Structures are given as C-alpha cells and as structure tokens.
Amino acid sequence: MTSRPTQRREALTGNKAAARALMLARIQVLCYFPIGPSDEVGEELSRSIQRGALDARLIELEHERSVMNAQITATQSGVRCSFATNSEGLLIAAQQLIFASYARIPIVVVVAHRALEPPAVVRTDDQDTIMYRDIHWLHYHCENAQDVMDTVIQAYKVSEDPSVLLPAFVTYDGWEVSHNSYPMEIPSQEAVDGFLPPLELPPEVDFIKNLDFSAYYSGNRMSGYGYIDVDREYMERRYQLDHALNVTSKDIIKGVHQEYVSAVGRGYGGLIEQYRMEDAEVAVIAMGSLAATSRFAVDRLRDQGKAVGLIKIHTFRPFPSEDLIHALKNVKAAVTLDRNTVGAVYNDLRSSLFGESNPPLVLGRVVGLGGRDVTYYDVMYMAEEAMRAGNQGRAGEQYRWHFDVIEDQDMLDRMLRDRG
Length: 420
Description:
By secondary structure, this protein is α/β, with parallel strands linked by helices. It has 14 helices and 17 strands. It is globular, with a radius of gyration of 22 Å.
C-alpha cells in the first residue's frame, strides 16, 4: 500500500486557507479587486507572488465586472485562475456570472459571505450567493478553514471535468470563518498535483484552439460557447447545461470526493455529510458554519437522551435531493436553518420530498441574518420544536424567522416552558 505524503499542520484563517488552496491548485492568474471580508485572499496571494512563492500574474482591475471579464478570458485561454469577492462585488458582476455558466467556463470564485446593503452591514449571511441559485453555478458551502481548503481543490477538478464544465462558488461565512484561525492539515504539493492535473479545456470551449471568426460573418449569433444556429441549438444547449449541473455533476462530485479522500485521507461526504443520523428521529439541516454549531447542539441533545442528528449540506447546487430523501427516510421531523431571506434550503427540501410516501415533517427557520448570533442553545430550541412536531404529527409554525439569541441554559429552559 502506497503511503500518503506527510501533511503539514498549521493554524490558518478561512481566507488564508482559501489562498493556500489556490496556490496548491497552481493558479496562473489572480484577478483582483478588494472587498472585505474576502480581500485577505487576494492580499495573501499577492504577497506570495511578490516573494516568488507563487508563479502567477496579478491583474488589478477597477471593479468586479472587469475582474470577471478578465477571468473569463483567461480561463477560455486555458489558464487556471481565481478571485475572491462577496455581496456588492457579486452584484456588480451579475452579467458576467451568467455568461460564465452559459458559456460553460470552469471558473472557481471564492466567496466569504457578507450581508447585502442597505443598511450597511459588514457581517455575514449567505444571501449574496443564494440569489444566484438559478444561474447554473455549482455552490459549495464550507464549515471551517479545513473545509475551505479541501473544497477549493476539489471544486477545480469537478468544474473542469469535460462532462461538467461549470463555474463554482466556494463559500464560507465572512468574519466567522474568513478571519478566525483553525488548526489545519495542509496536503503536500505532490499530493495535490497527483489529484488535480493541469487545466485542459475541450476545443469547443478553448478560445485559442477555436479562434475562427468566419462563423461570425456568416450571420450566426455568438453564444460564448461557440457559434450556433440559435433556432435549432439554443434550447438544446440550455438542456445540456441544466443536465450537467443537476444530474451529471452529482456523480462527479462524489467521485472526486472519494479520489480526494484517497489522496489526503480526509473528506466530507461529497454532497452531504451526516452526523449521528443512524437512529435519529429528528434532523437538523444546516450549511456553512451553522453546521459546526449544530453538531455541538446535537451532542448536547444526545447527552439528554434525545435522538437528534445533523445533515450538513455541502453542495447547495446541485441540490442533493436524492441523498437527503435517503438520509431522512426514518426521520419523523427535520428543521432547516437558512441564513438567507428566502428559506432556500427549506423550500428546496420540501420540493424534493413532494410525492414521497410518509415524508418527515419539515420546519423551516430563518436565522442569523446580518451576522446575528446563532448559539447552540438556539439550535437546541429549534430541534426541540421539530421534536415536538414529529411527536404530535403536525407542525405549529412550519416556517418562521427565529430572532432570539438564546444565551444560556436558563433562557432556553424558560423559552421551552413558555412555548408549552
């Protein structure tokens, strides 16, 4: 049996973990416009370029729209690149984000979530990428710095797979993950090189190999993904796009995850990660750093003899419908924790369960907007709500916003008593 290369142990912030992962992925172009709390990623990579630790070109631009244009062009030319942004930065780049997916360009964008204005808030929720859930990007949600590093590396391999060819957001909570330090294991360059080969685009996407302007003058329209006969091919190509995201990529993500586990000895389950779900009657479903808080809450509830488990959604797009249905087959009730204004996980989960025989009751809770604290006591309270609904066979308030910040056991006990 071949032993894995030794991994270094360091303490890194989420942003520095993202930067280190991009170095390990051997990006060649860094497109950069600063916006907090994502700017540390570009700053770290810029310093690495200056001291000769990263053989790449830094391109500083006037705003994120230009950054995305540069990244699209560089990737279409066969160069692996990246940039980090969030919130208003993503708003400015909206047209280019859509172009990237429709043109099947495998870009990876790192996002340290930040709440959208107005009013001006620099803390976190995930609305800034959730609002792009329907433009056919892959969406990864990471729990901590280790998750960020490992996911960035995997995201390139998934996005660049010829059967996928889609851009990806790798996201994590701003400030809470982006600027907190975590103990980490860093894979060797040898291990990553063996896992992630150099970027090689298929000819139809590679701008250099497919540079033919004769079609432009023929009257056909330019799609970004070659020149097409719009009347006969447009709808077919949109179907291919949708199928690549919502069908093909699921198996690719799982396969790439298993390859990564073999390469570095660590993984998160691919589309979802289950924790103490073997005999669970109630499931908490969360993304990002809320999964870490929920994991601790689950342990506390288990200490009280309550059969509660956790499902962490690692990829919001493609939405892991089949995996969730299987994970919830013996569960009475589930509660989703959405850090966005639209109940994205709640609504997608209910749609996935529609038509299933004897599905669990699903409660939806909007939490933590604008960086409002979500304590493990809050998660325990919402899990207790789901437990009560499961035992009664009906939900009181099936979907609502949870505004409270429950700070200690006494406050939790009082709220549970008041609820009756």
